[in-house]
Amino acid sequence: MSEAQNTMLSGTLIRGIGSFYTARTPDGQEYTLRAKKKFRRLSLTPLTGDEVIFSPGSGEEHGWVEEILPRRSVLIRPPAANVTNLCLVLAPVPEPDYLLIDRLMVQAAGQGMKVTMIVTKLDLDPGFRDRIEDIYKTASVRVIGVSSRTGEGLQDVREAMRGGICCLAGQSGVGKSTLLNHLFGLDLETGDISEKIQRGKNTTRRTELFTSGDVRVLDSAGFSQLEMEEVMDPVLLKDLYPDFAPYEGTCRFYPCLHDREPGCKVAEACREGKIHPDRLERYRQLLGEVRDTWKTRYS
Q: 213 and 243, same structural domain?
């Protein structure tokens, strides 16, 4: 075996296309790799954002992913590993799917990720950002409004992204690629909104990690559906809502699932305008899904 094949390097997977992956080392060198068959036996698929140990290969030969280091977090959709800051991108057009946003927030909270909301296309509806902030005022998220046309908010986004790995997630057409183009001077393909169905065209087809100084951002394909992947005891869902934390233990019943039980302090806070009613209603919808999955967990 050659000296090059004996060499082991460490790096981060920055993209995957088919069965090939690209790893970038700390000094900026990039290597094309394939995953060894042992990962298939372990039902372990390399993800963008994974920190790996690899053998680089030699000449034109690809190298091999030898080891995937322990992950700090895993996203199923968008598929990514080691994300510390989930940046949810939404815009006045296409109309936001708030249930999708709440699903993503639950996913992030379950793995200790920070959530940042980036509201794009401010020039289309200047009051849209304030409405989003009102809905999520108790959800412990920062809402940043940006306009790629005027440059408003772009510096705030850069600052919010510093440190760790950020992942841009959201529906097609909200402007994720446009945002990256303006932030990092890239030339990613962008799409228009369909006039007929008011939905975006998906121009990003894979998850890719971009780096600029101390900012690392994963761009992902837009999507419109996300299921609750994990089987969860329904009583745990409320713990993933920062909105409810101030009222924990104060309801008439314990545990209270905040699902129309008598004496529920969360429902009372909602009636008093302290929690947005749509936020509570969507929580109850997700709670119904979690309950259904829990009931059939052994079937």
A: no
